[in-house]
Amino acid sequence: MINVIGLGYIGLPTALMLASHGVEVVGTDYNKKLVETLNAGKTTFQEEGLDDLFAEAVKSGIRFTTEYQSTDTYIISVPTPYDKFSKKVDTEFVISAVKSVLEKCLPGSIIVIESTISPGTMDKYIKTTVEEAGLKVGDDVHLVHAPERIMSGHMLNELLHNNRTIGAYSNVIGEKIKELYMNFCDGEIVVTDIKTAEMTKVVENTYRAVNIAFANELAKICRHDGMDVYEIIRICNMHPRVNILQPGPGVGGHCISVDPWFLVGDYPSLAKVIDESMRTNDGMPDFVLNRIYEIMKEKGMTDVSRVGLYGLTYKENVDDIRESPTLQLLESQQRHLATGLKVYDPYIKDNVVENQLHSLDEFLDSIDMIVIMVKHDEIKENAKKLADKTVLDCHNFLQIPGAYHI
Q1: Which residues, 6 or more positions from 299, have their beta carbon under 8 angstroms from its beta carbon?
Q2: Catalytic positions, please?
Q3: Mind listing the pLDDT tens digit for each residue in 289-331?
Q4: What whole-number distance in Å separates Cα of residue 80 and Cα of residue 78?
Q5: Domains and CATH numbers, the chain
Q6: Residue 335: pLDDT above 90?
Q7: pLDDT on residue 144
Q8: Measuring CA to CA, how many Å separate 377 from each of 48, 263, 308?
Q9: C-alpha atoms less than 13 angstroms from C-alpha of 239 in its C-beta half-sphere
Q10: How much is the pTM?
Q11: What is d(CA 405, CA 180) in angstroms, rounded to the nearest whole number?
Q12: How far apart are the first and last CA of the chain?
């Protein structure tokens, strides 16, 4: 039996996928309300195909509880935020989960950490936690790092088809966990050492963050000197060895906006390009806020309550608001002692910010200027409704004549 610890955006799909492929699974989460929701037959976030997978897993016997189980295999998938001052990974939730597992696990158990961690975390914190409990790694307990590689909006497809990395102190144990994931994963699964597995996951997201930052920095340079960044990128990308990404209003989610900071925190004198790239991306919500006020001044607008931010999630067509650029922008506005921007997102039903509206028509009726923060399909399908609005399209995806851009 596999005990999956942490039933959020990564742990729940993993638990459901294992269960639906014939593995006995118990899902554990400290959040009692979340567990009650799952036991009532409802999923806790929106994702294409998740409800059907949930039904299959329940039919296969998956169970949900707040209690840790006594078994021989655990998959821990809990949050790993970063300390915003030191930039180092915060291992509090992982360590807490490991400690709880050690109280219940059988001799020789395997503890798999799926949570993203910085290189050396398993040695410095997880292995130490096991030893402090009077247990020996490689004998009483085995440790494995199997970082996830899934993206909101494509979770189930990526769980099934993405390649994976398994890091272990023992190749035998690594191969055993590889067999576990092969129950559902048809991508290539590489078994390597622990630190390499830790590093590869962080590097993957850092590579993406640095490339996004280059596009965002180009946008700032072109805005400063009156050039069309989109036309410049289009022409540059005609070169066979150039593939510049598109700029945007910021970077969100719990991967690209967080993981690269782990390297900055651990290697502050070495990770200079990464540091500057992250600061560039983190500065984009402020850049958008400044553009809003520039456009308001140009249009003679004085009432900020007539300006609306479209989109609260960190990416299009999902309900995930973790590290959302819109939330970052609103926080920046508050730091400047200003409020009033209207907000609307079709995927966010609960009130999570002030001045949040819950229908597109109501939102559009209440504003004169719309700032497209997220590329939801809904706004593209209703682009004609923006004919009488001042539009700041932060992604240049609506192709509206006269629209402003970052």
Answers
A1: 369, 390
A2: 201, 255
A3: 999 999 999 999 999 999 999 999 999 999 999 999 999 999 9
A4: 7
A5: 2-192 (3.40.50.720), 202-280 (1.10.1040.10), 284-393 (3.40.50.720)
A6: no
A7: 98
A8: 14, 35, 18
A9: 8
A10: 0.92
A11: 48
A12: 51
